[in-house]
Automatic annotation (TrEMBL), chain B:
This is Acetolactate synthase small subunit. PROSITE patterns: ACT. Catalyzes the conversion of 2 pyruvate molecules into acetolactate in the first common step of the biosynthetic pathway of the branched-amino acids such as leucine, isoleucine, and valine. SUPFAM superfamilies: ACT-like. Residues 7-81 form the ACT domain. Signal peptide: none annotated. One of its GO terms (molecular function) is acetolactate synthase activity. GO terms for biological process: isoleucine biosynthetic process; L-valine biosynthetic process. Belongs to the acetolactate synthase small subunit family. It comes from Flavobacterium sufflavum. Dimer of large and small chains. Keywords: Amino-acid biosynthesis, Branched-chain amino acid biosynthesis, Transferase. InterPro entries: Acetalactate_synth_ssu, Acetolactate_synth/TF_NikR_C, Acetolactate_synth_ssu_C, ACT-like_dom_sf, ACT_dom, AHAS_ACT, AHAS_small-like_ACT.
């Protein structure tokens, strides 16, 4: 039986197990929306307020669930508005399929109304993209899109569908894609590499693990924990690895990188073996590469061959899916405790506690509310069970440094791209993907205004996300840099803000503003107890800085405590 | 690390947009492509890119890694000049009268091992294949007589060592 290309798109999505998509209609995608209308009992479409919101919501959904997020937009501006979200998903390895409408095939290249070369524009920021110009291509390309998005190192895929292909008919049959001859998403694990890695790890006197999102993407959380507990190796995490190991785990020694913890950063340059698990040695993690872990033998477990030796030269590289590799590694690892070495981390933590953490969590000298103590208060009420979605800037660093997590896939943030405006729509996606979990968005007053329109989506869908805006009336992170490196010249970082609570209330979202420390506990309790969405604005100390800090280009050993 | 000339060979599916994807990898790193040639390869329906760049070995390793990562790329290799057999081709369009008036031109053609492709009333065309230096030498010899048009192709090259692509694809078909 013949069906339209547009209907085929919907049937492909259903065949891939998709029941929720984010999008915004427009001329060139109308046939698909007409089918969404017909299939609304099987496929729920969430109308966002801007296509960037659709992309970030799809990302939030994907990050919280591990499934592929789907965003739909029309041609031209609809498609280009997705691009920031696509770039974010690419650099943070988030599985996402974006479907864009395109002008009819006969109009391609003619500068038609709302025509844009989205294939050309999205090429550098997609794992794969394809323009469908004939209806009968739809099933095969959609199958490939989902396979590519979720397999190997995941990433965003964009499928651009011309309007004629949506209207034309085809004989529909769907076969899931399981193989592309030029694409090898899962490297064959070489057991001799695992053995070589195990030998180095077993001989190490001062080994240290840094794990990244690869653990979460390959669902290797249990294997990681088993490895750490058997080997006694202290484990630090990158910002995207956060929540793969419970915060309170004894061997969890904190975050590496620019605003990471003191111990793991300094000790990166003192360990004898550095075991990198599903991470890519981003410059925010390594600081100056010329002085990064030069004394250490580096053992790198990674699924993407292009990451091996890209930034840091490895002694042994195990190219594999993390879960598979760690499962093979575990029996080869000798039981150890590395107590003395672990004590080094504890000592360094004491230093950080004294110099930074105590003051952040309980400010003295009459200082206003800090971001850190707000996060700590959320911990108290969430008990570490909430999904925390953070935006980009100082509040993000405080959220990642101080949030407590018991479960994996609980930290959703824009790591690699650093996209302000990410958190509000991503929180919508995360909550819709995990309605069983509490979702708290932590956003700065700058980033909140970059996708503030998504309050409309929250109002319309009644999705019960909790929104916390940490308001210091500054673009805080840039201000901090201006203070430290540009002699206090606050160029365009002062924010004259609107009445945020009135705006939230304008969208019929319950809102509250906290200006005094005494109110914080009760206000957060009220927010967490709310069955509906809730907006909480916390006025925080205006010129607080995030420390520790590795200045750009400095060595991880030169991390500053003040 | 010093810069060297590297020849990157890419075997890929023959798909629209892949050229853009591959050239973007160079663009992103601000590396100028010195020469680019795309053609069929020894395997049916598989294209072969030959890309010449001047960069460090570290960068070329990274670039080849990024190229191989592209979904439709089957395999990519890089080689230094000594590891490959390579040449470029050039066409020179020259005023016909010179062929008869300037005896020397016939000698230049003979000595340079180039070929006359066509001769018409107004112009004749010489084709020359070889190393860049040989083409440049011929160019400089012909220049005084006046060259109506000149064009040189990108480098084409084959490696001395085996490039394991056919076997990769065969394995793929078996599995």
């Amino acid at each position: 039986m013949k069906i339209s290309g547009a209907e085929a798109v919907i049937r492909c999505l259903l065949a891939e197990g998709v029941d929720l998509v984010y999008g915004y209609p427009g001329g060139a995608i109308m046939p698909v929306y007409d089918e969404l209308y017909k299939f609304q009992d099987q496929l729920h479409h969430v109308l966002v307020r801007h296509e960037q919101g659709a992309a970030h919501a799809a990302q939030g959904f994907a990050r919280a669930t591990g499934k592929v997020g789907v965003a739909i937009a029309t041609s031209g501006p609809g498609a280009t508005n997705l691009v920031t979200g696509i770039a974010d998903a690419q650099i943070d390895s988030t599985p996402m399929v974006c479907i864009t409408g395109q002008v009819g095939k006969h109009l391609l290249g003619s500068d038609a109304f709302q025509e844009t070369d989205i294939i050309g524009i999205s090429t550098p920021v997609t794992k794969w993209n394809y323009q469908i110009t004939e209806a009968d291509e739809i099933p095969e390309i959609m199958a490939k899109a989902f396979y590519i998005a979720r397999s190997g190192r995941p990433g965003p895929v964009l499928v651009d569908i011309t309007k004629n292909a949506q209207f034309d008919t085809l004989d529909f049959s769907y076969k899931k894609c399981t193989d592309i001859r030029s694409y090898h998403p899962k490297p064959v694990l070489k057991i001799e590499k695992v053995a070589a890695a195990a030998e180095i790890i077993n001989k190490a006197k001062k080994p240290m693990i840094i794990f990244g999102q690869g653990i979460i993407l390959s669902k290797a959380e249990e294997e990681l924990k088993a490895l750490i507990e058997k080997s006694g190796i202290p484990a630090a995490w990158t910002i995207l690895g956060l929540s793969a190991l419970p915060t309170e785990h004894e061997l969890n020694v904190g975050m590496v990188g620019m605003h990471g913890n003191y111990g793991p950063n300094v000790l990166t340059n003192e360990c004898d073996v550095l075991i990198a698990l599903g991470m890519r040695f981003d410059d925010r993690v390594t600081g100056n590469l010329a002085t990064y872990a030069k004394q250490a033998k580096v053992v790198h477990f990674e699924i993407d061959p292009a990451e091996i030796d890209k930034n840091v030269k490895t002694e042994v590289a195990v190219l594999a899916d993390l879960k598979e590799a760690l499962t093979a590694l575990l029996p080869l690892i000798e039981k150890n405790s590395h107590e003395e070495w672990h004590n080094e981390f504890k000592k360094k933590y004491e230093i950080e506690l004294d110099a930074v953490i105590n003051e952040e969590l309980a400010p003295t000298n009459g200082k206003g509310i800090s971001m850190g103590e707000t996060i700590e208060m959320i911990n108290k009420h969430s008990k570490g069970d909430a999904i925390m979605v953070s935006d980009v800037g100082q509040h993000q660093m405080f959220a990642c440094r101080y949030a407590k997590f018991n479960q994996t896939k609980s930290n959703v943030t824009s790591g690699g791209l650093g996209t302000m405006g990410f958190a509000l729509p991503a929180a919508i996606g995360a909550k819709m993907g995990r309605p069983d979990r509490e979702v708290v968005a932590i956003i700065g007053d700058g980033g909140f205004q970059m996708n503030i329109q998504e309050l409309g989506t929250i109002h319309q869908t009644k999705v019960p996300v909790k929104i916390v805006v940490l308001n210091n009336e500054f673009l805080g992170m840039v201000r901090q840099w201006q203070e430290l490196f540009f002699d206090y010249r606050y160029a365009s970082t002062v924010m004259t803000n609107p009445n945020f609570c009135a705006i939230a209330e304008g969208y019929y979202i319950k809102a509250r503003k906290v200006t005094k420390r005494e109110e914080l506990d009760e206000a957060i309790a009220e927010m967490m107890a709310s069955k509906d969405s809730y907006f909480l604005e916390v006025m925080v100390e205006k010129e607080n800085n995030v420390f520790p800090m590795i200045p750009t280009g400095a060595s991880v050993s030169d991390i500053r405590l003040s | 690390m010093e810069n060297k000339t590297f020849t990157i060979s890419v075997y890929s599916e023959n798909n629209v947009g892949l050229l853009n994807r591959i050239s973007g990898i160079f663009l992103k790193r601000h590396i100028n492509i010195l020469s680019l040639n795309v053609s069929e390869s020894e395997i049916e329906n598989v294209s072969r890119f030959v890309i010449v760049v001047d960069t460090t070995e570290k960068w070329v390793q990274n670039i080849v890694g990024q190229i191989e990562k592209q979904i439709e790329v089957i395999k990519a290799f890089y080689h230094v000049d000594e590891e490959t057999i390579f040449l470029e081709s050039a066409l020179f369009k020259i005023n016909s009268s010179l062929l008869f008036d300037e005896r020397q031109i016939q000698n230049i053609i003979k000595e340079s091992h180039s070929e006359i492709v066509t001769v018409s009333r107004d112009f004749f065309v010489i084709s020359k294949s070889g190393r860049r230096s040989e083409i440049e030498e011929l160019h400089s010899k012909l220049k005084p007589f006046g060259i109506m048009q000149f064009v040189r192709s990108g480098r084409i090259s084959v490696s001395k060592e085996k490039m394991e692509v056919t076997s990769l694809l065969l394995e793929e078909l078996k599995s």
